[in-house]
Design goal:
This protein is an alpha/beta fold. It folds into two domains: 3-119, Rossmann fold (3-Layer(aba) Sandwich); 127-220, Arc Repressor Mutant, subunit A (Orthogonal Bundle), CATH 1.10.10. Helix content is 33%, strand content 22%. It contains seven helices and twelve strands. The protein has helices at 12-23, 59-68, 105-119, 153-163, 172-180, 189-202, 204-207; strands at residues 3-7, 28-31, 46-52, 77-81, 97-100, 127-130, 133-136, 141-144, 147-148, 170-171, 210-213, 217-220. The strands form three sheets. Strands 2-1-3-4-5 form a five-stranded parallel sheet, with helices on both faces. The longest helix has 15 residues, at 105-119. The protein is elongated, with a radius of gyration of 19 Å. The two termini are 33 Å apart. The relative contact order is 0.11. Residues 121-125 have low confidence and may be disordered.
Length: 224
């Protein structure tokens, strides 16, 4: 399953963040710097790296060490650091963003979503409006009558995929591959559960936009 990678020591803050991200539908893999070699076999499965540099005396070396592994060369990174370390960012390359520790889990989640949206293959500002329903990929949000829906990460990714491929029927296996990835172990029942949750959150007026094609899968309708 696609996962976020936390590189660095595990402490109270990382545990709070892990608990929060899990509740929001993310997966989080932990690794100390000494364990990076074992992650080579998981190359390509990480969406984003969270590099905890708060206890690292030399941030540049920490980033270079992570980049040295083949899986880490193209891994988007968010650096977590303390305020006195900001001066070390000068000349530091390969970072998508940085945040200051301690950081509320909700704020880190927002930064993660922002970076993932920015890296998405869809251009910034891409959106779609159908009736009172609006998808905004750049802001990583779905609005219903102007109010944001509370979607988990996978619910959003599934909804975004369907919306951006309207009137095309996708089987459950295809949706698993596109949204969860080829390494996902769970069954197609996962898709049904997420579709049911999405429809419930969209409400009866807009739930019909996600159409069930009997014995095949699902498609998104372009109009109510």
């Amino acid at each position: 399953m696609d996962s976020l990678l936390w590189v660095g020591p595990q402490g109270p803050e990382s545990k709070r963040i892990k608990s929060h991200l899990l509740k929001q539908g993310f997966q989080l893999t932990f690794a100390e710097f000494s364990e990076l070699d074992r992650l080579e076999e998981g190359r390509g499965k990480f969406l984003l790296g969270l590099l905890d540099g708060t206890s690292t005396p030399r941030l540049k070396e920490a980033v270079e060490k992570l980049r040295a592994g083949s899986f880490g060369k193209d891994l988007p990174l968010i650096l977590i650091l303390r305020e006195p370390q900001i001066k070390e960012l000068t000349g530091l390359r390969g970072l998508e963003d940085f945040v200051l520790s301690p950081i509320p889990p909700e704020l880190l989640e927002a930064r993660v979503r922002f970076v993932l949206a920015r890296l998405n293959h869809l251009p910034p500002g891409t959106g779609k409006r159908i009736g009172g329903l609006e998808l905004n990929v750049d802001r990583y949000e779905v609005l219903l009558d102007g109010e944001p829906l509370e979607l988990t990460y996978k619910e959003f990714e599934l909804f975004k995929f369907l919306v951006t491929h309207p009137d095309r029927v996708f089987s459950r296996d295809q949706l698993l591959n596109q949204v969860w990835g080829y390494n996902f172990i769970g069954g197609t029942r996962t898709v049904d559960v997420h579709i049911r949750r999405l429809r419930a959150k969209l409400g009866p007026r807009h739930a019909i936009l996600i159409d069930t094609v009997r014995n095949v899968g699902y498609k998104f309708l372009e109009s109510l």
